[in-house]
Design brief:
The chain is of the alpha/beta class. It has one domain: Glutaredoxin. Helices cover 30% and strands 30% of the residues. It has 6 helices and 9 strands. The protein has a 5-stranded mixed beta sheet with strand order 5-4-3-8-9. Helix 4 links the parallel strand 4 and strand 5. It is globular, with a radius of gyration of 14 Å.
Length: 160
């Protein structure tokens, strides 16, 4: 079953890179009492994700915060080292926090995974965005396969 507006996020532990190395992030604790703009991409360093999706959220970070977003979190089914390198190359620090769902456990729990084996990618997360308010899905934008429209930062801004 796919997560829907009004649902509470399932329990999940993702990873982020810190100055001391990889660190686990309990999403329920991390999102508690805060309004988070969460977006997911099929893969770090992939064309649309790197050229448009992440840069859009970096560019619109201040505008999203004016609309009541406490933090912007981007995620992908990549390891924490790849996510850290992607964030560094995109200059995301201070704008977007990048988290790793390395084993696709969170996207599977959301019902937003897909099989990218035909492209050598294995299980991945669909392209989506959501506003999560104190662990409850307030808004949800899931892309049709191959599209990039409703999960963009610009679209989220129009919906806030």
């Amino acid at each position: 079953m796919t997560i829907a507006v009004g649902d509470t996020l399932p329990p999940a532990s993702l990873a982020r890179m810190t100055e001391n190395g990889p660190d686990k992030v309990d999403l329920h604790e991390y999102f508690a009492g805060r309004r988070i703009a969460l977006f997911s991409v099929p893969g770090a360093f992939t064309p649309t994700c790197s050229a448009r999706h992440l840069p859009g959220f970096i560019e619109k970070a201040d505008a999203l915060k004016v609309k009541g977003i406490d933090e912007i979190v981007g995620m992908a089914v990549n390891d924490v080292f790849v996510m850290a390198a992607w964030g560094k190359s995109a200059r995301a620090e201070g704008k977007v926090t990048l988290l790793s769902d390395g084993n696709a456990e969170f996207v599977k729990a959301l019902g937003l995974d897909f099989d990218g084996s035909a492209f050598g990618m294995g299980t991945r997360g669909q392209r989506f965005a959501m506003v999560v308010n104190d662990n409850v899905v307030e808004k949800l934008f899931v892309e049709a396969p191959g599209e990039f429209r409703v999960s963009a930062a610009d679209h989220m801004l129009t919906e806030l």
